Each structure stands twice: as structure tokens, then as C-alpha cells.
């Protein structure tokens, strides 16, 4: 049963905190930060922060690389490069124990020269003519770690920005190379050029030397849709322009440019599609009936694009989900299709051969309760077109990077070091039963000496939204920040990862089950896991904490307001909390497809049941709470966190702490030092709150 909404939808005494950069508002933030830091920043905190920073700055971790031509490119941060370096090397060097890196761009030096603390946001390479080296890229840089970025053209031979080259000002842009002298740019061109979700509504053709103001419009979508995008596919022999009208997070219309007009690819709007050379690939999100057949939600269908455009619907059904198995992603090598699957949240990889009628075989690379992803190295490389990367990781298994060739073996290239004593712990998978009888899996990482007497501090983490799967992964940060901490009587922290509905662990249906009016299912699932941990005597409510960020912050916000009796402490990061106004804040309008529209009375009736800001009550004993965010977060924004903390404090709720990083974007941190402080603050708060020292 949900608490009653006790707040008027229009009378909000904390509306003033929505002025993100107002001086009065930032003074409030600084004062709250000082209180929180005074309470948490102790010698113990500083030890934790140093230990976590060692993990993040470690020079022994895997430098993940992307292949472009003959080079392997990597972006890297460590203690000597706070904001990072963009670099490259050859394969022979990369595969060695001490690669010889060529530095392309030093972001620390660039920031000093520009007087702006740039945050790396990636690079887009211009495909060269056949046989020629890569010479140009667009470098994306954020001035504060937010989603808004500046794009500048970079010369990969001279290793400098191109004088007079492309330079798209900071905005939430979406850009594609259309050729060596042309870009397709979706950006903020002034009034009417953005959607209600704050993303590009129009895409323009920007020629070299031209101005954005004078650029010709090429594609546009309705203002209440989420985003417009145009991509130029430069694959030799398959060059084409593709436009996407993203209506909301889960529906879109895709078009091909033909004879000067946009031709729709006629698949269901909620299907995911991709084009690869001659193939059209479709993944329906709901069952799709076409040409006398019904294709299941979450299946993968392949057909020749030209055949499809002439009316053929004889799809090859190359994957069909079952109750335990879902498709997570796919990747093409030159001659094969790789499928990354989850079977009860453990990885499985299959290799499909189109030349053999899509015959499937298992890639033997996936131990139980681990996550392993396979993807092509470079499907256009003459010699290595069927090579693939494997990334294997587990809660107690440091990540390892492999390289293999389909039809051959895969060999280890690099491994991350151990950051904590993994041998002391065990991983188990359990299933809780939710309120409606659904079995909900979760992972438990605990000391081998775990006593099932309810006396162990435990941390439950989850997300449960946007079809995002929470899978096993090694984390030195969690190992040092939580698992290796011990109480006065020697008990280690227990870490639990929830696989609740709203995620993608069992495909689109697992996600659909917690949308809109069914959102409560995700929260009931999480609560069921908390109750199962207590029933199994792993922990007790006063020793059980929970943590989540973004949509996960909304999740734990609902634990705070609807299930406060199940938890002793809650860490709520960069959260959604005011679901009455979330569509009017930052990029919130784009999430209506996930949560519902609070401006429609019939939808507000259910949205209000999971709006933590409106579910606070005077007569409830709430668990100790830390709410943290970042000023520069332009996705969720800091406003909802501010208002929630302010309201709880005004109500006289005890033990409410707030912290706002003054930079860092939606990640909450723009560099390793900030990330270490963020992690340390959350872990320190939770540990001390649960063990009685706060």
C-alpha cells in the first residue's frame, strides 16, 4: 500500500531551489556540503578515499582500445593525467606488457591553455578512402562533465586541431561525418531547434567553411518528440544516409534517403533496427505479426535490405528468447554474427554463420555467474576481419581482455590486477519472490566465513529501468570500499546486486513489466530481495543499506518513502525524486515513455504513487539518508536532490545529509579524484550509519 500524496501539485515551497546557478541557491548548497563534509570527512574517510583513488588511478588496469586503420586508440586517466590523455599505438605494441603510446591530445594541457576544465567525451573518426590512413576525427569535449559538448576537428597526422576546421559550439549536439568536407549536425540553432526534451529537433548540412546559422535543414521532427538524428553510413559499397526520428526512449521511425526524399523503413515503431552492409536487423520489443508469422518480443530477425524494401518479409529468425534467456547485444565480424546473451543473468555467446543458413554454435568462453561480451575488432580489416574481442569479468574475477578469431582460439591479451583479497569471498545467486509471485534473481557477494545470524552489514544495489541489465562485474572500488571493511567483531560487508523488473536481464518483457502504472513492480521486487536477505538471516533491517543512482536514485527514494522499515541507511545519487515536475527539469521530458506523463490527470494518479518528494510524511521514522548530486548534471539535474533534502530537513527528519559536487555531470564526477571522493562519501556514510558510528 502506498502512502498518500500530502503535497499540492502547485504549492511547492522549495521551487526556488530549481534555479541551478543562482547565488542564493549555491550558498545553500555550500552550507549543506560543509555540514556533510564535517560529519563524514574523517581520517577513516580519507583512508577510504585514498584506497579508491589508487584503484581508479592504477596504471595496471586494462587500457581498452578501439581499432581504426593500423592504430589502436585509447583514452586514459591516472594520477599524472587528471583530465586524461588521448593516445594510440600499434597492435604489436598494444599486445606487449609495456605499450609505447603516442599521445595525440593532453586534456590537462588543453584545459590550462583554454582556461576551461575540459572533460573528454569521445572522438568520431572520418572514414578514409580505401587503403588510405585515417587523417581526421571530431573530438568531443564537455566544459563541465555534462551532456552538452563542443566538437572540434582534429588532424591525426599533425596531432593538432585543424585551423579553420569544423568547430561546433557547446550544446547537446548529435553529429555525423557526411564526407570529408561535410557534417550532418543536430544542435541548438536557436528558438524552435530543440525538442521539449532539450535535444536537437532539426539536422542541418554543414559544409566546410560554412556557418551553422546558414546551414540548410536536412531533417526535422516534431517538437514533442525526443530527438532528430542523421547518420551517414560510409561502408564501401553501401554508402547511404539514415535518419532517425526518436519519438521517445522506445519508439522511433527510421528512414533511408532515396531520390532526394526520406523513405521509411516499415517496421514497428518500438522495434530496434540496424543496417549492416546488405542486411537489415530487427529486434521487436513487442510481438510482431507480419506476413502470416508472429515474431516474439526480444527475438532477432535478419533479412536482405533490398528484399525487404521490395516487400519481402521472409526474415531469418536467428534468435528466439525463452523464459531464462535474453539477447543483450550483437556484433558483426566480416563473415559472422556474434550474439551476446544472458541466461539467468550469466553470459552466453553464440556465433552465427549466414553462409550456413545462420547455423549457430556456442563460443566456449563464459563461466557461470560471470559477464562476458564479444564484439568485432574491425570487420573491414583485410587480415583480421573475423577477429573479436572478449571482455570477461566477475564479482571476484578481475577483468580480462582476450582476442580471438572465429574458427580459431582466443588468447588473453591483458588483465586487470587484483585490488582486494577475492579469495576471502564467495558469489551466490539467489531468487526472491515478489509480491505478485515473480521470481527475482539477485547476486550475493559475501565472506566465506559469513554467519547467517542477521548480524552482517549489507549493501543492496539496483537500477530497474530503461531495459538496462545489471550483470556481474569486478570492482576494486566495491571491494575496497565495502567488502573488505569489517566491524569491531570482524564481520565483513556483504554486497548484493538486484536484477529487478524494469531492467533488461530477461529481455523487453522484463522491462515492460515495470513501466508506467506497473512501476510498483520494480519497487516490490527490490523490497522482496531486502526481505529475503533478512529471512535468510544474512542481515537485519537496521544493518541493511541500499544505494542507487539516476533511475536507481528514484528506486531507493521509493525505498525511503514506501519501505523505510526495511533499511537502516540509504544512499541516493543524482536522483529523480519529484515526479510531478520531472518532465520540466533538464532532460526529464524524454522519460515519459518510462514513467508516464504527470500533466495528464489519469497518469498522475499512478505516477504520484512513486514520487518520493510527494510521499514524505510527518509520522514516519525514516532511515538515515545521504542524497548526493552534481551541479553540472544536465540530464537529471541537481534540483530534485536539493528539494528532497530541503523538504526532509524542513520536516524535522533526523540524519539527512546532502552533498552536491560543483562539477561532474550526470556521472557525479569529472575525473578520478572527484569519483574517488564521491564513492568514498557514499560508502563511508553507509558503513557508519549502519554500524552506529554516525
What features would you describe in this structure?
The chain has 14 helices and 39 strands. It has a domain at 19-54 and 419-691: Alpha/Beta hydrolase fold, catalytic domain (Rossmann fold), CATH 3.40.50. The protein has an eight-stranded mixed β-sheet, sandwiched between helices. Strands 5, 6, 7, 8 and 9 form a five-stranded antiparallel β-sheet that branches. It is α+β, with helices and mostly antiparallel strands and 694 residues long. Residues 1-9 have low confidence and may be disordered. The protein starts with 22 loop residues before the first helix and ends with a helix. The radius of gyration is 25 Å and the shape is globular. Helix 2 (43-57) packs antiparallel against helix 6 (476-483) and helix 2 packs across helix 14.
| Beta-strand fraction estimate | 25-35%
The helix fraction, in percent, is 10-25%
**First-to-last CA distance:** 31 Å
The level-1 CATH class of the domain at 19-54 and 419-691: Alpha Beta
> Could you say what the CATH architecture of the domain at 19-54 and 419-691 is?
3-Layer(aba) Sandwich
How many DSSP H or I helices? 14
Structure classification? alpha+beta
Which stretches are low in confidence, meaning pLDDT under 50 for 5 or more residues running? 1-9
Adjacency order of strands in the biggest sheet: 32-33-35-34-36-37-38-39
Shape field? globular
Beta-strand segment tally = 39
Please describe the biggest sheet, giving its number of strands, its sense, and whether it closes into a barrel. Answer: 8 strands, mixed
Amino acid at each position: 500500500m502506498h502512502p498518500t500524496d500530502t503535497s499540492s501539485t502547485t504549492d511547492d515551497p522549495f521551487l526556488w531551489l530549481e534555479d541551478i546557478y543562482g547565488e542564493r541557491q549555491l550558498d545553500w548548497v555550500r552550507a549543506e556540503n560543509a555540514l556533510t563534509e564535517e560529519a563524514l570527512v574523517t581520517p577513516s574517510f580519507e583512508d577510504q578515499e585514498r584506497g579508491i583513488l589508487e584503484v581508479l588511478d592504477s596504471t595496471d588496469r586494462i587500457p581498452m582500445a578501439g581499432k581504426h586503420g593500423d592504430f589502436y586508440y585509447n583514452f586514459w586517466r591516472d594520477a599524472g593525467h587528471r583530465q586524461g590523455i588521448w593516445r594510440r599505438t600499434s597492435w604489436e605494441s598494444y599486445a606487449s606488457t609495456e605499450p609505447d603510446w603516442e599521445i595525440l591530445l593532453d586534456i590537462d594541457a588543453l584545459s590550462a591553455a583554454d582556461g576551461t576544465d575540459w572533460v573528454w567525451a569521445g572522438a568520431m573518426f572520418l572514414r578514409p578512402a580505401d587503403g588510405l590512413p585515417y587523417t581526421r576525427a571530431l573530438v568531443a569535449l564537455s566544459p563541465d562533465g555534462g551532456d552538452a559538448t563542443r566538437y572540434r576537428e582534429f588532424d591525426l597526422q599533425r596531432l593538432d586541431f585543424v585551423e579553420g576546421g569544423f568547430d561546433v559550439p557547446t550544446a547537446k549536439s548529435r553529429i555525423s561525418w557526411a564526407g570529408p568536407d561535410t557534417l550532418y549536425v543536430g544542435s541548438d540553432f536557436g528558438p524552435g531547434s530543440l525538442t521539449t526534451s532539450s535535444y536537437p529537433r532539426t539536422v542541418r548540412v554543414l559544409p566546410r567553411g560554412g556557418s551553422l546559422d546558414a546551414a540548410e535543414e536536412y531533417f526535422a521532427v516534431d517538437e514533442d518528440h525526443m530527438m532528430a538524428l542523421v547518420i551517414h553510413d560510409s561502408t564501401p559499397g553501401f554508402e547511404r544516409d539514415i535518419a532517425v526520428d526518436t519519438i521517445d526512449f522506445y519508439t522511433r521511425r527510421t528512414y533511408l534517403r532515396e531520390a532526394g526524399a526520406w523513405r521509411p523503413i516499415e517496421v514497428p515503431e518500438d522495434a530496434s533496427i540496424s543496417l549492416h552492409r546488405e542486411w537489415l536487423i530487427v529486434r521487436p520489443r513487442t510481438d510482431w505479426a507480419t506476413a502470416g508469422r508472429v515474431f516474439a518480443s526480444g527475438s532477432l530477425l535478419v533479412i536482405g535490405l533490398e528484399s525487404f524494401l521490395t516487400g519481402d518479409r521472409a526474415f531469418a529468425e536467428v534468435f528466439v528468447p525463452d523464459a531464462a534467456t535474453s539477447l543483450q547485444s550483437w556484433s558483426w565480424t566480416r563473415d559472422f554474427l556474434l550474439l551476446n546473451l544472458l541466461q539467468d543473468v550469466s553470459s552466453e555467446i553464440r556465433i552465427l554463420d549466414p553462409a550456413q543458413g545462420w547455423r549457430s554454435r556456442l563460443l566456449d568462453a563464459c563461466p557461470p555467474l560471470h559477464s562476458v561480451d564479444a564484439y568485432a575488432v574491425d570487420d573491414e580489416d583485410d587480415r583480421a576481419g573475423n577477429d573479436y574481442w572478449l571482455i570477461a569479468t566477475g564479482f571476484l574475477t578481475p577483468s580480462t581482455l582476450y582476442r580471438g578469431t572465429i574458427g580459431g582460439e582466443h588468447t588473453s591479451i591483458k588483465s586487470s590486477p587484483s585490488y582486494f583479497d577475492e579469495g576471502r569471498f564467495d558469489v551466490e545467486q539467489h531468487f526472491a519472490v515478489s509480491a505478485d509471485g515473480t521470481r527475482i534473481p539477485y547476486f550475493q557477494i559475501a565472506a566465506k566465513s559469513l554467519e547467517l545470524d542477521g548480524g552482517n552489514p549489507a549493501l543492496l544495489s539496483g537500477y530497474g529501468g530503461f531495459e538496462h541489465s545489471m550483470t556481474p562485474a569486478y570492482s576494486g572500488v566495491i571491494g575496497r570500499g565495502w567488502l573488505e571493511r569489517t566491524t569491531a567483531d570482524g564481520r565483513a560487508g556483504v554486497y548484493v546486486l538486484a536484477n529487478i523488473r524494469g531492467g533488461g536481464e530477461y529481455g523487453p518483457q522484463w522491462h515492460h513489466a515495470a513501466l508506467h502504472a506497473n512501476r510498483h513492480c520494480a519497487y516490490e521486487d527490490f523490497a522482496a530481495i531486502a526481505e529475503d536477505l533478512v529471512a535468510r538471516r544474512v542481515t537485519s533491517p537496521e544493518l541493511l543499506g541500499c544505494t542507487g543512482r539516476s533511475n536507481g536514485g528514484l528506486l531507493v527514494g521509493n525505498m525511503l518513502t514506501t519501505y523505510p522499515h526495511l533499511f537502516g541507511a540509504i544512499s541516493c545519487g543524482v536522483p529523480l525524486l519529484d515526479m510531478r515536475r520531472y518532465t520540466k527539469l533538464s532532460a526529464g521530458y524524454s522519460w515519459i515513455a518510462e514513467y508516464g506523463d504527470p500533466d495528464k490527470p489519469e497518469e498522475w494518479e499512478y505516477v504520484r504513487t512513486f514520487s518520493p518528494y510527494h510521499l514524505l510524511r510527518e509520522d514516519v521514522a525514516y532511515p538515515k539518508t545521504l542524497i548526493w548530486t552534481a551541479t553540472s548534471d544536465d540530464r537529471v539535474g541537481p534540483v530534485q536532490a536539493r528539494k528532497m533534502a530541503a523538504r526532509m530537513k524542513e520536516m524535522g527528519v533526523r540524519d539527512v545529509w546532502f552533498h552536491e559536487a560543483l562539477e561532474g555531470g550526470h556521472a557525479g564526477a569529472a575525473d578520478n579524484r572527484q569519483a574517488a571522493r564521491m564513492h568514498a562519501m557514499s560508502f563511508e556514510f553507509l558503513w557508519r550509519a549502519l554500524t552506529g558510528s554516525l
